[in-house]
Amino acid sequence: MLQHASINTFVRHYSVGIHVDAQAIVWGLPQEKRLMHFACSMSRSIDPRRPYKLMTEQSRSINELPSVCALQELVEKCKQAWDACYGKKKYKRAVRKYQQALCELRNERQQQHNCLVRENLERYKNEQPVIDSERQLSGKVVDEEVIGALQ
Fold first, then answer.
1. Is 56 found in the same domain as 37?
2. Cα→Cα distances 4→32, 136, 141, Å
3. What pLDDT shows up at residue 1?
4. Which of 13, 16, 60, 86 is deepest in the core (most CB within 10 A)?
5. What CA–CA distance (Å, rounded) separates 10 from 142?
6. DSSP 148
């Protein structure tokens, strides 16, 4: 990229991660950190290419993770224990264990989902400036999708 030996030079020095209120520094005023954070993230949040959702195959892959598989097995065991205890004294305890295991499974799935979304956004944040710069160097200033979204 830009005739550097590696892409890391570009990402390190030309990245979009600007969070400094230069005007406030020059004038000696207190920095507006929240305003700068909002202004720097605003164009990224309206970008139609921004991956704010998981693709279908990524969502399905969550069920194949070892931690989720282990919790699914626990839920199945608790369900079997619940069915076996029907009408006995241990029934309420079995129901509670099943509901607790089900809650843990839902929480783990949601946590893994959020983690994948964050990874996608981080990857997009690091790779998209490079793609945009290459597009500008090739003569395309803005993608047609983005023009439509901005209008």
1. no
2. 34, 17, 21
3. 46
4. 16
5. 20
6. H
pLDDT value for 20: 61
In angstroms, the first-to-last Cα distance of the chain is 30
Determine the structural domain holding residue 100 and report its residue range.
52-150
Average pLDDT over residues 21-46: 65
Contact 50, 131 (CB under 8 A): no
Judge if 7 and 56 occupy the same domain: no
- Per residue in 66-110, pLDDT (tens digit) is 999 999 999 999 999 888 888 788 888 999 999 999 999 999 999
Q: Please answer whether residues 94 and 82 qualify as being in contact, where contact means their C-beta atoms are separated by less than 8 angstroms.
A: yes
Average of pLDDT values for 51-62?
Answer: 84
* Domain tally, the chain: 2
> Do 110 and 41 fall into the same domain?
no
Average pLDDT, the chain: 77
Give yes or no: residues 30 and 64 share one domain: no
Distance from C-alpha of 116 to C-alpha of 119, rounded to nearest angstrom: 5
- Distance, CA of 106 to CA of 11 (rounded, Å): 37
69 and 120 co-located in one domain: yes
Burial class (CB in 10 A: 0-12, 13-18, 19+), 141: exposed
